[in-house]
Amino acid sequence: MTAVEQQTTIKPGWTGRFFEDFAVGDVYQHPLGRTITETDNTWFTLLTMNTNQAHFNAQVGAASEFGRMLVVSPLTISIAIGQSVTDTTQNAFANLGLDDLKLTAPVYAGDTLWSESIVLATRSSGSRPQAGIVTIRTRTLNQDAVEVLTFRRTFYVHRRDADGARSHFPQAATPLSLENEALENET
Question: InterPro entries annotated for this entry (predicted)?
């Protein structure tokens, strides 16, 4: 059998977890670490109109008890939430709460953040039968395994068969296949 005669099989990429996939006690170590740069910190600070110079003025940061500029807290929080999306809220349609947020250690430009989440609770939605409600606790560690952030988050997430969970990937007029690849290479 030649390569052209082989059957093409579409292998779907990771589409995230649905309500049925969450089990209390499951821990997800989110796969992507993120190193924060000074540019990230300055842009995020100014974008969010935070006027505390400890985040964007090296002289003020050096004079602080930390001896250097701090990464603005909402950036740390945003990165942690973003890191968790692939494993927790890829199929969510609403965040319902962010609770017990604690910034447990300072974060500096150059730190690499890693996050992990544990499922605390799941329940079916009484008002939306195509969804469920999940509560997780996420913690974020720096490159030295020091916890810098922890919070609980509750969200609505689609069930696997929900209309909102269907794929939106467009269907090309010509499928991607070995046969079409071979035809293209002949021309």
Answer: HotDog_dom_sf, MC_hydratase, MCH/BMMD
CA atoms lying within 13 Å on the CB side of residue 141: 12
Query: What pairs with residue 95 in β-bridges?
Result: 155
Structural domain boundaries in the chain: 19-159
Q: What are phi and psi of 135, to 5 degrees?
A: -120, 130
Residue whose C-alpha is closest to residue 132's, from 1, 18, 4: 18
- Distance CA(158)–CA(164), nearest Å, equals 7
| Residue range 19-159 in CATH 3.10.129.10 | yes
What is residue 5's predicted lDDT score, i.e. its pLDDT? 56
- Render pLDDT for 129-141 as a digit per residue (tens, 0 to 9): 999 999 999 999 9
Q: Return the percentage of the chain with pLDDT > 90, whole number.
A: 75
